[in-house]
Design brief:
single chain, alpha+beta, 5-stranded mixed beta sheet, 3-stranded antiparallel beta sheet, about 30% strand
């Protein structure tokens, strides 16, 4: 007796035709590879510099080392060294915030306002900036204010030391010294001696670059490079402080008595021609 074999039907396609499902998969694969290639082109070519800087910012620490600005002196026989600074530096503090480390901006603002002044809502807005690593809150605060802020132990709130320009005889020497101002380009001398000798007084900025770990700590065996800051040079004027103060007082009195719009006095040394006093 003969066994009956199973009958199979094979579906064939005409020569040259393709399975539409295979074509669909190939198109999807090609599209995916094209999208990946386009994305890699954007990341590596168009925005490569940005991502490199981002990676360096997470692994490398770069900070500027600011020099101490030179002082401006006049002659004063009452001082031990015979000099008195009419433009000098004194220590002050800047209170700043790291908003990304502040868990409760509202509570933090309410704690700071009684010390720093201002209002809660504007301060709260500054403390709530997402991802902001540095937000200066108040500059040139005293040591007492700094200590009061740090005593609160608020997360994300800190203080840094800074040198600010100080003019002890501003009332009688401001027209000589000018002042130091700050803008987007940094601090620089404006008018007077501060402006005329700004490059000499400013000194040279240094820098320090090192590798850090994810917690911001220096890597012991990491690369470290940098240059030291060069402090600015001092200026010693031919002005005599005692003569300068008395001359300015006498000029002020004379202008008031004469009801004049203003006045100017310049006193020169009779032999050398050095300026001993200059009031305006």
């Amino acid at each position: 007796m003969l066994a009956r074999l199973p009958f199979r039907v094979r579906r064939t396609t005409r020569r040259g035709s393709r399975d539409p499902r295979l074509v669909f998969l190939v198109c999807i694969g090609a599209l995916a590879w094209a999208m990946i290639g386009a994305r890699l082109f954007v990341i590596q070519i168009l925005r490569g510099g940005w991502y490199t800087a981002l990676a360096s910012g997470q692994r490398e620490l770069f900070e500027k080392i600011y020099p101490e600005r030179g002082e401006i002196f006049v002659h004063d026989r009452r001082q031990t060294d015979g000099r008195f600074p009419i433009a000098t530096n004194r220590q002050a503090y800047t209170i700043y915030a790291v908003p990304r480390d502040i868990p409760d901006p509202v509570r933090t603002a309410r704690k700071l306002v009684p010390i720093l002044g201002g209002e809660v809502i504007p301060l709260e807005t500054r403390l709530a900036k997402p991802g902001d690593p540095y937000e200066p809150l108040k500059r040139q605060v005293s040591r007492a204010e700094r200590d009061a802020v740090l005593a609160l132990h608020l997360p994300g709130i800190a203080a840094e030391e800074m040198l600010v320009r100080y003019y002890p005889d501003a009332a009688y020497a401001a027209h000589l010294t000018g002042f130091v101002g700050e803008d987007a380009r940094g601090r620089s001398g404006r008018y007077g001696l501060e402006g005329a000798f700004d490059a000499m007084l400013s000194g040279t900025t240094g820098f320090r670059e090192s590798e850090i770990d994810p917690r911001g700590r220096w890597i012991v065996f990491g690369a470290r490079t940098g240059t030291s800051a060069a402090n600015g040079a001092d200026l010693l004027l031919t002005i005599d402080r005692t003569l300068q103060l008395e001359t300015c007082r006498q000029l002020e009195r004379a202008v008031t008595d004469a009801q004049a719009a203003g006045g100017t006095v310049v006193i020169l040394h009779p032999v050398t021609g050095a300026i001993r006093a200059m009031c305006s």
